Amino acid sequence: MPINSGMKCHRLIIFYFLAAVLTQGIPVTGLVLDQFWYTSSRLNPDGDCWNWTLGSDQYKWLRQTLEHGRAHFKFVFIHHLVGGGTPEARCGIEAAKCSEWSGCDLNGNDVFKEKRQNCKMPIHSLLARNKVNILFHGHDHFFATRDLDRVVYQLVPRPSARKFDNTRSEQEYGYVHGDVLSAPCFIRIRILGL
After folding, report:
1. How confident is the model over 75-99, as pLDDT tens digits?
2. Which of 113, 135, 167, 193 has minimal CB crowding within 10 Å?
3. Overall average pLDDT of the 164-189 stretch
4. How many CB atoms lie under 10 A from the CB of residue 104?
5. Element (H, E) at 151
6. d(Cα 100, Cα 77) in Å, to the nearest integer?
7. How many domains does the chain have?
8. Which domain, by its residues, includes 32?
């Protein structure tokens, strides 16, 4: 599928969508998402995270790429989960329980069809259904890993931090589940055959 297919870009951006298949013996697809492109307001002062969105074009591209891809390993990269779990859009799997990510409002009511009429299913359901292995996300600057419905949610740390324990705590950012390490550290991914 062509990069940026069907998109009308109104500004120069180096990487908007990226679907790369590595052919060194093991098929891997890496998908980079941009939750800032279509988002109209980046603040969630009242806790309603529905102003954050991938937008229907990017969502459609993601769905088509995942559904038609043949790679054994599928990795998705995003700055933070669409909507997040706090007014500053923080959190991992805990944030996957609301907004465009799960289809629910803050009270747990399914409002996806009402809020996202052009999308087939919530983002997390799309990732799980298409067997995405790992979702890499940032924004919170420490290492945290947990999985939800066989999708690993991997918060990438901040390797450039000057000292240990200089990030806010996982509790302050809303992380309840998973393994957590303070920055600085880095992640190495090694794929060992099929």
Report:
1. 999 887 877 666 666 667 777 777 8
2. 193
3. 69
4. 16
5. strand 151-155
6. 16
7. 1
8. 18-181
